[in-house]
Structure formats: C-alpha cells, structure tokens
Amino acid sequence: MSRVGLDYRYWIYLEDVKEEISYIKNKLLLISSIIVLLLGLLLLFIIRQSLKIENKRHAATKELLVSRQRYKTLVEASAEGTIMLQKKEIIFCNKKTAEIIGIERKEIYTLALNKVFDLNWTSIEKRMNKEGKTFNTPVKIKTGLKEGKEVLLSISQLTYATEKSFIIIVKEIDNQ
C-alpha cells in the first residue's frame, strides 16, 4: 500500500493507454484497409461485367442493323412487289409494290395492311398457323390509283429480330 492508501498495481499508466489505443487504431486501420480493398475489387468486378454486357449489347445491336439492312436489300432487289410486315406494321416495301398499288412508297408505311388490301389479317395468321408457313391468297387493293384491282399475295412467315414477321410478295394477276 502506498502512503495515500492506494495500491500502485491498479494505477493506469498513460503509456499503457497510448499503447492500447495505438494497437486498436492499427487493427481498425488494417480492417478498414481490407474492407476498402474488397470493395474496390468488387467494384472492379462489377465494372468489368458491365463492360462485357455493354459490348455484347453493342455487338447484338450491330448484328441487328446488319440483318435489317440485308432484309431491306432483299426487299429492294426483288423484281416483284415485296412487303415486310412485323408487329402488323409494314417495315419495308419496294418500289414495285408502290407501282402495283398506285401510291407513294412513303405513304404505304403509314397504312395498316388491311387499309392497303381487302383482307382480314387475324384470319390469315390463324390460317397460316394451321397450314404452315406460306400460302397464297387473292385480294383486292383498297387504296391508291389501282383501288379494286385484284392481286395475288404470297405470304411467308419468318423470324426477324427474334419476332414473328412476314414477307408478302404482291403479284399482279393480269401479268401471270
């Protein structure tokens, strides 16, 4: 016992406290550094994966554009009237189609198929599902300079850009 009545064994020395604080501080610094390193690695992994996904998306977009250009070239090069239909909308048609119908090409794109030809597209789709992927049907033109003229539509189903699409060949019945 000391003079004052306190036992020196239980005294807290300032150096011991500083040493303990330094030890805890170093441990926290090490743990924080490890966490930051792991977060950095995780962020790097996420960025790398995002870059891969973006590159794949870019390649798929480019492939789709090339495919679209091929179909457009195919439709344009056809000597017969050709229409490409997707989601019940005309996405391509060639000059010959406009000549057969008797309207401007740009006007064809604004019309639904059943406004151009006298047909029921829903029944044609049902018929195609029963009979296969291609069939012919005579129809009358409903618009343009040649309204009322009968033409033969040869409709073929295909997959374009992962969606069900149709190529429609328009033939003048008089010229067959």
Overall description:
The protein is α+β, with helices and mostly antiparallel strands and 176 residues long. It has 2 domains: 12-77; 80-175, 2-Layer Sandwich (Beta-Lactamase), CATH 3.30.450.20. The chain has helices spanning 14-77, 95-101, 105-108, 113-116, 121-131, and strands at 81-86, 89-93, 134-140, 150-160, 163-172. The chain has a 5-stranded antiparallel beta sheet with strand order 2-1-5-4-3. Strand 4 and strand 5 (163-172) form a beta hairpin. The radius of gyration is 37 Å and the shape is rod-shaped. The N and C termini lie far apart (125 Å).
Helix percentage: 40-55%
Task: Estimate what percentage of residues fall within beta strands.
Answer: 15-25%
Q: How many β-strands, per DSSP?
A: 5
Uncertain stretches: none
Number of helices: 5
Q: Tell me the CATH topology of the largest domain.
A: Beta-Lactamase
Short description:
The protein has helices spanning 14-77, 95-101, 105-108, 113-116, 121-131; strands at residues 81-86, 89-93, 134-140, 150-160, 163-172.
What structural keywords apply?
alpha+beta, 176 residues, Beta-Lactamase, rod-shaped, 5-stranded antiparallel sheet, 5 strands
